[in-house]
Amino acid sequence: MKYSKEELKKSMLLYAVTDRMWLGEGQTLAQVTEDVLKNGATFLQIREKDLDDDAFLTEAKKLHTLCEHYHVPFVINDSVEIALACDADGVHVGQSDIMGRNIRDLIGPDKILGISAATVETAQAAQAAGADYIGVGAVFTTSTKKDATALTMEQLREICEAVNIPVVAIGGIGADNILQLSGSGVDGVAVVSAIYGQSDPGAATRRMLELSHRMVAAHA
């Protein structure tokens, strides 16, 4: 499905990133993710660092079907090959992934391309490389990426002002600190443990969605 620029911007509001590490006994990633989608996640990225390609593709196909049902954009972390194999809506890549590769050419003009950035320069380079949105972080210290240094609010604002595509903040964001991003200019938040690491991921999703609405509204 092709998403308009306006639809994509709105979909940044609550961007959920999967993490099977938090699954309880007997739970599947698809079951928990359906709960997350049903309760208001507006975008989904599947991130799998430890599965082989066949298992990754199997999971990706299941989640893609769920996202189509809930009309939520679905992207694959890092793997262009998996994204194309399951006909995902797009792919999200890091700065190292765009060195010497034209990801836009690989995925075609209609797929969503997200690129990570942490500076004005890398954000502008991502936009020039054909990114539809930028994931900016880490905005707070995070256990997911232990080597990431937290950005200041001023740096975050500068990045948002330097590009004309949507910006989603990522890194250590939870219910306790999301409102600190008010006024930064970001279009939403990308979260992992704030949803998947909670005892009730559905309830956590509803809470984070409410807070993200408040955070974005405070930009105005």
What does this structure look like?
The structure is a single chain. By secondary structure, this protein is of the alpha/beta class. It has a single domain, classed as Alpha-Beta Barrel (TIM Barrel). It is built from nine helices and eight strands. It has helices at residues 5-11, 29-38, 53-70, 80-85, 103-107, 120-128, 153-162, 193-196, 201-217; strands at residues 14-17, 43-46, 74-77, 90-93, 112-117, 133-136, 167-170, 188-191. It has an eight-stranded parallel barrel, surrounded by five helices. Strand 3 (74-77), helix 4 and strand 4 (90-93) form a beta-alpha-beta unit. Helix 2 (29-38) runs parallel beside helix 3, helix 2 crosses helix 9 (201-217) and helix 6 packs parallel to helix 7 (153-162). The chain is globular.
Order of helices and strands: HEHEHEHEHEHEHEEHH
pLDDT < 50 stretches: none
Structural class of the secondary elements? alpha/beta
Output the radius of gyration: 16 Å
The best one-word shape is: globular
Report the sheet-strand fraction: 15-25%
Domain unit count:
1
Spell out the CATH superfamily.
Aldolase class I
CATH fold group: TIM Barrel
The proportion of residues forming helix, as a percent range, comes to 25-40%
CATH first level: which class? Alpha Beta
Mean pLDDT: 95
- Gross CATH architecture: Alpha-Beta Barrel
Main β-sheet, in a few words?
A: 8 strands, parallel, barrel
Number of strand elements: 8
